[in-house]
Amino acid sequence: MVEVLPHADYEPTIGAIARGDAPTCRLTDRLSELGARMADGWSCCAVTTDDRVVLGRVTRRQIDERPDATAAEVMDPAPVTYRQGMPARELVDVMTKGSIESAYVTDSDGRLVAIVGRHSLEQGLPEFAGAR
Question: CATH topology for 14-129?
């Protein structure tokens, strides 16, 4: 197998680094049902339509505080989303300035593609790779 190395000018995009297995839920889902979906260290769950259009975000803190509530009752509506082709370095800057730990990656129709964490983005950039 031949390893293809990126060109020296290659700038990784968030789509190349993001995880596509982000937990999702529907508006009517009870928060008590979301814990198992958020295993593996996820700190939030995307509230989506059946077509995966992002409507909001539910955090682990909201689940702990109101386990009997539905996602619709507690979600943070309309979270900011980013496109797959955005340079990873650019999103790291946005996340650092805004103290944001994770961000949703969507297609042009607002459908969830993935979620990306700031730590993962930093690991994917050469200037951060040796710092960890």
Answer: CBS-domain (3.10.580)
